[in-house]
Write a structure and sequence with these properties.
Length: 174
C-alpha cells in the first residue's frame, strides 16, 4: 500500500457508548434450561436487525491510514448514516478529506465486516456521502460491483490491510 498520508491531522470526535439494550435482554445463560425449552420458538422466523446493531458492527473498524483510531472516532461513520430495510442494509460513509485515497479501502472494510456478520438474506450497499469525495461516483461503483469486490479480495496485500482494519471490529464500546 502507499505510504502517502492523505490526512495528516484528522479531527477526532468523542464516541458514544454502545447500544446496551440487547445486552440486558440476553444477560442470562447461553444455555436453555429445561423450563425454557417449551417456550422456545422454532418457527425459523428471522430475528429483526436494526440500524443500531449494524452501526455497532462497523463503529470499531480501524481507519487504514490512522490505525489507532476507529471510523467512528474520525466521524467517517455514524448511526444516522445506517439504514436497514427488511432485506437491505445501506451504509453511507464520509471520508475525512475530499481527496481521500483510502475511501475505497474504508468502504471495502465496511462491506467485508457486514458480509461476515450479517445473515445472507441482507443485500449490503455501501456509498460515499454525496459531495464528500471528489471521485464519489467511481468509489461507489467499485464498492457495489460484485466482480470488483471479489477481485479486490483476491489480492493478498489488500486482504492483509483489510484484516488489520478489521482486527478490532468485534470490540464494542471503546
Amino acid at each position: 500500500m502507499s505510504s502517502e498520508v492523505f490526512n495528516p491531522n484528522p479531527t477526532i470526535i468523542a464516541t458514544a457508548q454502545p447500544n446496551t439494550r440487547r445486552k440486558a435482554s440476553h444477560a442470562q445463560s447461553l444455555w436453555l434450561s429445561d423450563s425454557e425449552d417449551s417456550s422456545f420458538d422454532s418457527d425459523d422466523e428471522p430475528e429483526p436487525i436494526d440500524a443500531d446493531e449494524v452501526f455497532d458492527l462497523i463503529r470499531c473498524i480501524s481507519d487504514p491510514e490512522h490505525r489507532s483510531m476507529t471510523l467512528e472516532q474520525l466521524a467517517v461513520v455514524s448511526a444516522p448514516q445506517v439504514t436497514v430495510a427488511p432485506s437491505r442494509v445501506q451504509v453511507e460513509f464520509t471520508p475525512t478529506v475530499p481527496h481521500c485515497g483510502m475511501s475505497t479501502l474504508i468502504g471495502l472494510s465496511i462491506r467485508v465486516r457486514l458480509l461476515r456478520a450479517l445473515p445472507t438474506r441482507f443485500k449490503v450497499d455501501i456509498h460515499v456521502k454525496p459531495g464528500s469525495h471528489q471521485s464519489e461516483h467511481a468509489v461507489n461503483k467499485q464498492l457495489n460491483d460484485k466482480e470488483r469486490v471479489a477481485a479486490a479480495l483476491e489480492n493478498p496485500a489488500l486482504v492483509e490491510v483489510l484484516e488489520t482494519c478489521l482486527e478490532n471490529a468485534g470490540r464494542r464500546g471503546l
